[in-house]
Amino acid sequence: MTEVETASLHESLHKYFGFDSFKGDQEAIIANLLAGNDTFVIMPTGGGKSMCYQLPALMSEGTAIIISPLIALMKNQVDAIRNFGTEDGIAHFMNSSLSKAEITKVKKDISDGKTKLLYVAPESLNKEENVNFLRDIPISFFAIDEAHCISEWGHDFRPEYRRLRPIIEQIGTVPIIALTATATPKVQQDIIKNLAMNEAKVYKSSFNRANLYYDVRPKQNVVKEIIKYIKQNTGKSGIVYCLSRKKVEEIAETLKVNGIKALPYHAGLEANLRAQHQDMFLMEEADVIVATIAFGMGIDKPDVRYVIHHDVPKSLEGYYQETGRAGRDGGEGNCISFYHYDDIVKLEKFMKGKPVAEQEIGKQLLQETVGYAETSVCRRKTLLHYFGEVYDEAKCNAMCDNCRNPKQKFEAEESLTLVLDTVLDVKEKFKAKHVVQVLMGTKTAATKSYKHEALEVFGKGSFETEKYWMAIIRQGLVNNYLEKDIENYGLLGVTEKGKEFLENPHSILFTRDTDYDAAGDDDEMAAGGGGQRGGASDETLFALLKDLRKKIAKQKGVPPYVVFQDPSLEDMAIQYPINMEEMKQITGVGSGKALRFGKEFVDLITKYVEENDITRPMDMVVKSVVNKSGAKVYIIQSIDRKLSLGDIANAKGMSMDEVISEIESIVSSGTKVNISYYINSIIDDDKQEEIYEYFKESETDSIIEALKELGEEDYTEEEIRLVRIKFIAELGH
Questions:
Q1: Are 409-511 and 539-614 equal in CATH topology?
Q2: CB of 511 closer than 8 Å to CB of 473
Q3: Which of 171, 599, 617, 657 has its CA 20 to 30 A from that of 585?
């Protein structure tokens, strides 16, 4: 891409959306699509998927056709796009909810060249009259959202998606961009094959959502625990998922009785009531939606602060998608699941009567969920392994219950060796359950018919429980000693790494799984653990801005976040913009949004600044820092409030290393900050003194040199960097 093309992309990004930079692979994806190439995007929820087709649609000649399975979501997305511009005709949706007159209006805007984005359901695209209409208009490209619906192995299979390719070919040959927020390697293959996108450039982002905190709790006194958690998070938006419609109604009613603004949402509700409940949640007239996990909600709300699973979901893809609705704005997102194996038994019962192949797929997916729920290793590592991604659990930053409260470790060399030997002895042709039966010496029809009772390993593992051996197998899979052939009924195989281990066995530590059946009642459960908003912004002003946003949203008939998202309000409550030019510099506020909504916010902030005699960051010494980085201002003010650096990192979706680098930059640019409160909480006085004295006497501030001198065995790089910041701040200014 040329410099001119790059500049054009960035100008368009700022013009339409008010952002100065792209996230992750967005820029490369958009450039590839604009160049006329098929594109396949695998990006987690909250990664900015919709931008990958919204911006190129606005920049291209003709209309982009966005195929989405969720009618409920279409209106939200259309409203959001319209609010970034000045012309409502720029975006439309066409589905069964529209009257004939409304459809005529949509078609006129498209024919007149006003419409850049047209959202359609796959069922609507199947209609001959729509196909004939679309044949005669210039189309920039097709975007297929929620592309995992194509695959029977996906968590939300939709047969209509299987018929998309031939329909697209009838309409015309233009580039296709397929997007999904959750796809295992098997599902990815299905999507490429079905859409005939063999030449497509694939962009796969990490599935890691660093701001989400994962927590699995024993399912005891669950309703009481849910009420307690929600009350500890009053005023925050949340979703509670349940297995059945009946349970949804029961939980919603119980929450209401207990003074919580909650509403039910499931497929059995009358359509208008369902839409009303969704709108009330989006408009912040209700704090909690209680919903069935079986029903795709299509709620595109960026500030959902917690997702609670009353019951275990049917698959890890479903779980990932549902938990992914938390913290889409990069802020706090707590994912709490209550687990008991009885839920799995219920879900298996629901499968009876379905075709055998479907039951087989369903059972495999359920066992993956069991493995995730019962594991005691890093939940992030387990979850990302399922999506084919290798993850170093050290980077979890204690953002899951297992890393925050590590379980007991034990020497597993002998057990892993026994499991690997058994998998090889049964010729790598059996699933985990059969391997465990052989290890335990359990006689079954299968062990008898395959003569496995005669194997030397038969019964060698009888000194431990079935759960123990399942845990060894799971950790063997996550650590790449074993592999599972998902297309072949989940048969276990030994990897090259596993074979190397058998040739050269060595000490290896595994962790003991939690026994959720035996877990006691826990009345002191923590209220969560994800990053909080942090309070670096002016809390009073932030609350006033939220009230104003709610009022304007009500007037316009749109969800509050369509007016401005929380990060924008947060930035306003840090920067105090008092004119339109300053408002345009606020994160997420471009010219269009500033003109459409900015004046009332500027007026409120101006009045607030005057009445409270506020010294604005833009008037302070850090003015140049403000213009350069909103994160720096956030960090400075968070340190003033003595927030832990971990909380600051979580609130901004940054790693600890990134936060420390920002503080180093702040200090070196001449701004004094005092992080002694944090250093004192994690480094003892003697260590601090030694590092401090080292820098007083050293001619270099090199961390590498300091590590060599002080000793890597006794000091960490992080400790030295933190004390160096303190040294420069105290003596360098």
A1: no
A2: no
A3: 657
CA dist 384 → 47, 183, 216, 391, 478 (Å): 15, 11, 16, 7, 9
Name residue, tokens 């391997």: 435
> What are the residue ranges of helices labelled H in 258-315?
271-282
C-alpha angle 201/202/204, rounded to 5°? 155
262 burial via Cβ count (<10 Å: 0-12, 13-18, 19+) = buried
- Per CATH, domain 212-341+374-394 is 3.40.50.300: yes
What's the CA gap between 267 and 146, in Å, rounded?
Answer: 19
The helix/strand/coil state of 492 is strand
pLDDT, position 525: 29
* CB 242 within 8 Å of CB 84: no
Structure tokens at 286: 């209700």
Partnered with residue 411 across adjacent β-strands are: 509
Please name the fold of domain 628-731: Arc Repressor Mutant, subunit A (1.10.10)
Beta bridge partners, 409, equal 511
- Longest C-alpha distance within the chain, in Å? 87
Q: 228 with 211: CB under 8 angstroms?
A: no
Please provide residue 509's backbone torsions phi and psi, each rounded to the nearest 5 degrees: -100, 125
Q: Which two tokens stand for residue 376?
A: 């005691």
pLDDT score at 732: 44
| Domain boundaries along the sequence of the chain | 3-204, 212-341+374-394, 409-511, 539-614, 628-731
412/419 Cα distance (integer angstroms): 11
In this structure, what token pair is assigned to residue 179? Answer: 């997007």
pTM for the whole structure: 0.59
Residue 652 neighbours by CB distance under 10 Å: 22
CB 651, CB 533: distance < 8 Å: yes
pLDDT in the model for residue 241: 94
Q: 306 by DSSP, 3-state: which?
A: strand
Question: Any idea which architecture 3-204 has in CATH?
Answer: 3-Layer(aba) Sandwich (3.40)
How far is residue 728's CA from residue 733's CA, in Å, rounded to a whole number?
7
Q: Which residues of the chain have pLDDT under 50?
A: 518-535, 619-629, 669, 732-733
Class of domain 539-614: mainly alpha
Backbone angles phi, psi at 334, to 5 degrees: -105, 130
> In the prediction, which pLDDT does 559 show?
65
Six-digit token string for 695: 């820098």
pLDDT at 298: 55
* C-beta of residue 52 within 8 angstroms of C-beta of residue 41: yes
Instruction: Please state, in angstroms and rounded to a whole number, the distance separating the CA atoms of residues 648 and 631.
Output: 10
